[in-house]
Amino acid sequence: MFKDINGIRIAYTDEGQGAPLLFVHGFPLSRATWSKQVAFFKANHRVIAPDLRGLGESASGPGPVSMSRFAEDLHDLVQRLSTGPVVLVGHSMGGYVALAFAMAYPNALSGLVLVGTKAGKDSPEVAAARRATAEKVRTEGVSVVVDAMAPKMLSASHADPAMAASVHGFMAASKPDGVMGALWGMADRPDASARLGQIRVPTLVITGADDTVIPPSESVILAESIPGAQLTVIPEAGHLVAFERADAFNEALNGWLESRSSAPGFRGTIS
Ligand code: MLT
């Protein structure tokens, strides 16, 4: 399905009925990475998974795309879909967007799930490298990013060539404008660390134990900084934990969703 949101044609999945879950993918990925969550959660939830502007099947606009711009698109989308407050599940760059959403639209959230992500901003070196990569994408295409990132998405502890090929395919479908826009946006994103204590919705932090892109220590910081947050570490999983270990991920998320109504205010543990 598609909707014109802020002048951009946004592609999204909207399936199932029940309390709404909004899944937001990472970089340079698409809603295809959430296919195993859509299939599982649509039995009991309304599951919405958009392609962020410039990625997947969504159209791109020119120039940088800030994390707040992505968040505004999401907010407009859920308003157009009349979902009411959502549990927002954001992976990696989708987590940066989720934090921007949580700060800008707290009343539009009923819960927050931060997956393989972090609150800090880029160091000057990392930001400069992102901008240099964006220039290379302009001249050489998205393979510059895909070839560098695809091998880091899954855990090294078990090799699954078919899964690795799927991940490569998700990334290779990205368009240069969208990849450049997101790179510039990430390079400029603000540090959300000081505002984590303001988050008032129940929060679950999930990481793959073998994530080398954003190490689990970042998830520990998130869980310790967000009031009442719970942390789940999934073993034998890399950065793309929800795709790689979908069963374990879905069980963790489902358990947390079910426990929220019966036991609010729980404290973080590592499981
Ligand atoms: C992602 O998976 O979204 C990216 O690795 C995030 C980043 O590059 O900071």
TrEMBL record:
Domain of life of the organism encoding this protein: Bacteria
Keyword Hydrolase appears in the UniProt entry: yes
InterPro entries noted in UniProt: AB_hydrolase_1, AB_hydrolase_fold, AB_hydrolase_sf, Epox_hydrolase-like
Pfam family, one: Abhydrolase_1
Annotated ranges, domain AB hydrolase-1: 20-245
Coiled-coil stretches noted in the UniProt entry, renumbered to this chain: none
Protein name, UniProt field: Alpha/beta hydrolase
Organism, as annotated: Geothrix edaphica
Origin organism lineage: Bacteria, Pseudomonadati, Acidobacteriota, Holophagae, Holophagales
